[in-house]
Specification:
By secondary structure, this protein is an all-alpha fold. The chain has one domain: 434 Repressor (Amino-terminal Domain), CATH 1.10.260.40. It is built from five helices and no strands. Helix 2 crosses helix 3 and helix 2 packs across helix 4.
Length: about 80
């Protein structure tokens, strides 16, 4: 296994959660400890995320990783 999770969380889904939380890509990147370019390219559908990156993003956004898998609705902040 190469550590990527394609189709678990999509770029548009990440963007929607980020917007719901009122975060910019730069703010999310800072909280997750990853590059803003990583977020931008993923949201644009130009890359896949590693499993550890998905976990970091979910933690920074305050959502369970299971949300990114099963799509259960989340509430606002």
């Amino acid at each position: 296994m190469n550590g990527t999770m394609p189709a678990v969380i999509t770029g548009p889904k990440l963007k929607a959660i980020r917007a719901l939380r009122g975060m910019t890509q730069a703010e999310l990147a800072h909280l997750a400890g990853i590059s803003p370019v990583t977020i931008a390219t993923f949201e644009a559908g130009k890359s896949h995320l590693r499993t550890d990156t998905v976990v970091k993003l979910c933690d920074a956004l305050g959502v369970k990783v299971s949300y990114s898998i099963d799509g259960t609705e989340i509430s606002g902040p």
